[in-house]
Amino acid sequence: MSFTSSTKQRLVGTLVLTTFLGILSAFTYTVRTEHHLVDNSLIKSKNAVNYKIDQQKSKITWLAKKVSGEHSGEIKIASGNLNFDGQHLIGGDFILDTRSISVTDVKDKETNGKLVGHLKNDDFFAVEKFPEARFVITNVKKKSDGLYDVQGNLTIKGITKPISFSATTKVVDQQIVANAKIRVNRTDYGIKFRSTNFFENLGDKAIYDDFDLQVNLVANR
Q: What is the DSSP string of 80-146?
């Protein structure tokens, strides 16, 4: 088959135009996609303000229950930050010093010491091997002004599990006040001591799997 000179020119022209349009289309799609991702990233990083958690003014208490009663205490914050975009929470994290765990409901000094020692050993938090627990926010959904659904990763004894809860925040001048109640299933982190899901015939010696952390944070800009 043979083509005239003008036909060849038209075919070449059509091929070049088609190729150019294909490249342009692909380039446009890539630019739009990348621009969208970059925009979101820039907006978040440009407006984010970091607030450092005040270890002295912040407080975390715990409450654990058993068939025959309950115990409560405190655990100290080693460090942490809350990230805000204007008035809105967008991220954050904090580290707990597991070696600081204390019991506040037992007044007898000897009994208190024994309970604290038990919480620090391998039956519970193994604080010498795992001196820190950590929470990192992975997602925040605003429900209303100052009220959020928070999702994150909680690490205890080297085991990381996703966890979610509601939190409130208040911005006062250069300070943030944040509060949340976090329910934790201890068996998710290998803490199975006297759990009815792992041991039988415990009777009134059973300890419930869930414990609560009441988190009250104060953070400064």
A: EEEEEETTEEEEEEEEEEEEEEEESS--SHHHHHHHHHHHHSTTTT-TTT--EEEEEEEEEEEEETT
